[in-house]
Design a protein that fits this description.
By secondary structure, this protein is mainly β. Helix content is 8%, strand content 47%. The longest helix is centred in the N-terminal third of the chain and has 14 residues, at 295-308.
Length: 1010
């Protein structure tokens, strides 16, 4: 985002001075304000009104391209008049708006609509969901990125484009496997339930489910299910806004407790029909390998472990050191199993254009991504998008229709090979024999790539459509209706043929297994709305009221098929000898609401914003289905005061804003308050019975989140330096959890509201500087920093609840209760820990009392954008101060038949040694127990702070003198390029042990516009 600079164009300074004098001019003066030099005889009078699409714009400069001395300025009503010839072109310019060139032809009346120039930060219009607002007049907390930020990143999920670019938004990719999901936290965790912290996604005005798609039965190769946002092509996105505080989110009521993510796709524009084609190709690799033992060190570890245990005769199954396997063989299994190169191919074509009243946009896209694993696996996405925008001749009726359709096809391995690659002995046999067949090394080797004979296949089809109709009723009133529909279908199948097993087991196709998961989600929404705008003297009113009617249907059907005549029939359940239904669900969710907003702006200096919503949800019991939420936001633009202007001329903008309000949360699943029954596996006379699964709770109600924020925003030197500092506090109460019940009831718990309070308190800081602005060179820097303290304030009865080993009052929800490691016993070489209760026995419930915080202490990003003539360089550094599990977490005990981190060579061998690792062992029970406690102790949680070159993009636009009528842009892009950290694991950011971390990606691309 650029800024206006007086040094860039000194004429703008004179325009500002003259604007103040000319605002009071009538249209008569406007018509006469022109150079006395007359145009040729063929000139004629041209007049019209200049507006921003909503209000007239006074002080706009209009000049003729053929005679720049012939200039007029619009009056207070936005009216202008001047003489021009049919061959002339009007140059229309105004501070804060993009300059327009408009051919005159034979027109005598030309009404002009100017578009806001995003280079002037105060004038940027921000999408707030049901309305839009200038950045200058915003009372709520809204973070924003645009297509300029998105197009520099070679990623396939829109959430990845937000990483490191927004204050208060923490996003982590769950795995580097294609089609994976992301975890997102907006100002911390609010709910005790892990599935109750997702934000609300709105795509082109239509709510989009945040629930992952798939099933643990068919997605075992990933730590979480597939992300539903994989359906959205990042190249189609125009902007992403994140609503954070109560003022911004309360209008969404129960759905806005965890923040709102607004995704707006690109829209059609008037003008000559243009065709744009983008093609990119690239490759990806893991960011780095973990340092593990080589063969000599590994063999030495194994021999020493047996010696420590007093075993001189190696067991028959110790193939690595008993002479069965070659002890001089060495294989880098990380290179073999996860060291491949993934390929990325993307192709997109867009055609757009239209007249003044009707515009269209059609686009299609295709992308293909392979994996770094051995074998032929890929993830393919193809889709199309249409957008039509129309307005009537009198510009009172508006219609905008958009539709997005995508089809995804994936073929992935049954498992992630990352953990195997780090633990397989370095002298393990080769994967294939001399004939190219799987090598089982005389049944001494469980070949890890045999699993490649199976696969997880998936097909996902997603439709999202929206129609927005509006009509200007007059006298400031406007009526509109937003209608949306979504339909998602997915079929996943997990294929496990008998060939994934060692042939020596004698398993035939009767043991082949297929698990199928079929998911369908359908939803519709209708939102009528009435708005009114009015300006009375110095007070501007902006009021809206509306209603929401929404319904979502969901179906899931999971089956298991076993025993096939042939593995070639494994995809056909009809060919199975037995079929079992693992799960069959059908859900219905209904939601209704009334909402309203009133905004008052006094003299452009004092702003008050009131929002409210009454929600009704089918997820709660009788008498608890409705709840009220609301917020108040206020802002004072103190830079508009005379005293500030007189004493601080370098302060171009200053705003103090505050907000307070409540939002809710109904992310608890359907039918949780009801008596429910499930089908019993026990049959009587061949008929399945029913058994109760949940107790009725009429008092089951809403979670409530109270949010408060105070912020100050300042701009210096004509906004060349722009800062924002915000303090916030969110308190979530009335938590929806399972409350334990006595065993005599027949149930372990009942879903109910618990009077537990979770607090998120923190500070956000953003800085944007326009370091250099010249015609040939510009340099812009953006910086954001967030520090949040998440804390469980209260939890009545925690010590007697099932959550007592999970949460600690005064600590964050993401806390880990661990043993306290006191050091290595230098005499025995065994890890030691604190016996908290002093009973001489280590038990998890009593002795794991040390709390370790896995939330980042602070995080942020630093972005720089540089332009030199047609060459642009953009790069982003992402950083985080945090702790994570060490490189040993999840590893078997050193000494066993598993490779280890190279650091274990610094271990206890003789009395007095300090380690830090304990003595090697194969089966010593004392050492095994100590090692297991070590993995569950504070010693296994280490500093994992990092600084990462998250993204870099170099773009060159070929000169028009070379390409004539074609615009050509060439780009080189990189993602996860460099990481600076002391962390010894495979990736410091990554939280899912044993899974593939996000990849380092490089792509080249070409964009042609005709």
């Amino acid at each position: 985002m650029n800024y206006f600079s007086f040094s860039k164009d000194g004429k703008a300074l004179y325009c500002l001075i003259f604007t103040g004098l000319l605002l009071s001019f009538s249209s008569v003066y406007s018509r006469n304000f022109r150079n006395s030099k007359m145009l040729p005889y063929q000139s004629h009078q041209v007049q019209g009104i200049v507006s921003d699409g909503v209000s007239p714009l006074p002080g706009v400069t209009i000049m003729l391209k053929s005679n720049k001395n012939s200039t007029v300025i619009t009056d207070y009503n936005g009216h202008y008049s001047l003489e021009a010839s049919p061959k002339d072109t009007l140059i229309v310019s105004f501070i804060g708006f993009k300059t327009k060139l408009i051919p005159v032809h034979n027109q005598t009346k030309i009404h002009i609509k100017l578009d806001y120039d995003t280079t002037t930060l105060q004038e940027v219009r921000v999408n707030a969901g049901y309305y839009s607002v200038k950045e200058r007049d915003r009372t709520g907390s809204i973070a924003r990125i645009t297509s300029k930020d998105i197009e520099t990143q070679p990623v396939t999920n829109v959430l990845a484009t937000m990483q490191g670019r927004m204050a208060g938004v923490n996003i982590v990719q769950n795995t580097g496997m294609p089609g994976s999901g992301f975890s997102i936290e907006i100002r911390g965790l609010n709910s005790l339930r892990s599935d109750g912290n997702s934000p609300l996604y709105i795509i082109d005005g239509v709510p989009y489910s945040s629930q992952g798609i798939g099933s643990s039965y068919t997605s075992a190769n990933m730590p979480t299910q597939n992300s539903p946002l994989n359906s959205i092509n990042p190249s189609d996105v125009a902007s992403i806004e994140v609503l954070k505080d109560a003022d911004a989110t309360a209008i969404y009521g129960s759905r806005g407790a965890n923040g709102v993510v607004l995704i707006t796709t690109k829209k059609s524009k008037s003008g000559k029909t243009a065709l744009s084609v983008d093609y990119s190709n690239g490759l990806g690799r893991v960011t780095g390998f973990k340092k593990v033992l080589d063969t000599p060190s590994y063999i030495a570890m194994r021999k020493e472990a047996f010696a420590n245990d007093g075993i001189s005769q190696y067991p028959a199954n110790a193939y690595d050191i008993n002479g069965t396997w070659d002890q001089n063989r060495e294989t880098d299994w990380q290179k073999e199993l996860i060291g491949g190169t993934s390929e990325y191919t993307t192709l997109q074509a867009t055609i757009s254009g239209g007249s003044q009243h009707t515009q269209f946009l059609l686009s299609g896209n295709y992308s293909k991504e392979t994996t770094v694993f051995p074998g032929s696996f890929n993830y393919v996405r193809a889709g199309g998008r249409a957008n039509i925008n129309h307005e009537s001749e009198d510009e009172r009726f508006h219609l905008n229709f958009s539709a997005v359709y995508s089809a995804q096809s994936s073929s992935m391995p049954l498992v992630d090979f990352t953990q195997t690659a780090m633990q397989l002995p370095p002298n393990a046999p080769s994967l294939y024999d001399e004939s190219g067949n799987l090598n089982w090394e005389n049944n001494t080797f469980q070949n890890p790539v045999a699993i490649l004979n199976g696969q997880t296949k998936g097909n996902t089809f997603d439709l999202l459509s929206n129609a927005l109709l509006s009509y200007e009723l007059g006298v400031g009133f406007s009526a509109s209706a937003s209608l949306g529909y979504t339909n998602l279908d997915q079929k996943q199948i997990n294929l496990q043929p008998s060939t994934i097993y060692n042939p020596s087991y004698g398993l035939g196709t009767e043991s082949s297994l297929a698990i199928s998961n079929i998911v369908n989600r359908r939803s519709w929404i209708a939102e009528p709305k009435l708005s009114w705008t009015k300006k009375l003297d110095k007070i501007a009113f902006d009021v809206l009221a509306g209603a929401t009617f929404q319904q979502q249907n969901g179906d899931q059907f999971i089956t298991q098929s076993r025993g096939f005549a042939s593995n070639s029939l494994i995809s056909n359940p009809a060919s199975a000898s037995s079929n079992t239904v693992l799960n069959s669900d059908e859900t219905l969710y209904k939601y209704q609401a009334l909402f309203a907003r009133a905004n008052l702006n006094l003299a452009g200096q004092y702003i008050l914003n009131l929002t409210g919503r009454r929600d009704g949800s089918s997820r709660f019991g009788p008498g608890r289905q409705f709840a009220d939420f609301g917020a108040v936001g206020a802002a004072w633009i103190f830079s508009e005061s005379r005293w500030m202007k007189g004493n601080f001329p370098f302060l171009s903008y200053g705003k103090l804003r505050a907000s307070y309000g409540t939002t809710g949360n109904d992310q608890i699943g359907d039918y949780q308050f009801m008596d429910t029954y499930t089908t019993s596996s026990t049959k009587y006379q061949g008929i399945s019975g029913m058994q109760p699964s949940r107790l009725f709770n009429a008092a089951f109600g809403w979670e409530v989140n109270r949010k408060m924020e105070i912020a100050v925003e300042t701009g210096f030197l004509q906004d060349r330096i722009f800062t924002s500092l915000a303090w916030f506090q969110n308190r979530s109460s009335n938590q929806l959890v399972g409350i334990p019940l006595p065993g005599t009831t027949g149930f372990n718990s009942i879903q109910a509201n618990l009077d537990a309070v979770v607090q998120n308190k923190g500070v956000e800081f953003s800085l944007k500087t326009q370091n250099i602005t010249r015609n040939s060179f510009s340099w812009i820097t953006s910086f954001n920093l967030t520090s949040i303290k998440n804390e469980l304030i209260s939890f009545p009865g925690l010590e007697v609840s099932t959550y007592k080993n999970r949460y600690v009052i005064g600590e964050p929800l993401n806390v880990v209760k661990t043993y306290h490691y006191t050091g290595l016993n230098t005499t025995t070489g065994i890890y030691q820990f604190e016996d908290v209760n002093g009973d001489g026995v280590f038990t998890a419930n009593e002795d794991r009392q040390t709390a370790k915080n896995l939330n980042p202490k602070y995080y942020g990003g630093l972005q720089n954008h540089m332009r030199f003539h047609n060459l642009e360089l953009d790069f982003l550094f992402q950083f985080s101060k945090q702790q994570n599990y060490s490189e040993n977490y999840g590893q078997p005990m050193p000494g066993t038949m598993n490779n280890q981190s190279s650091g274990v060579t610094q271990h206890w061998q003789n009395e007095g040694d300090l380690g830090p690792y304990q003595a090697y062992s194969v089966s010593n029970s004392a050492k095994q127990q100590a090692y297991l406690r070590y993995l569950q102790s504070d010693a296994s949680i280490v500093d994992a702070s990092y600084l990462r070159l998250k993204n870099i993009s170099l773009t060159y636009e070929l000169p028009k003198s070379w390409t004539k009528k074609i615009n050509c842009r060439l780009s080189l892009q990189g993602q996860n390029v460099l990481t600076f950290t002391k962390y010894k694991g495979i990736d410091p950011e990554f939280k899912s042990s044993g899974y593939l971390p996000p990849l380092k990606i490089y792509t080249t691309s070409i964009q042609l516009t005709f």
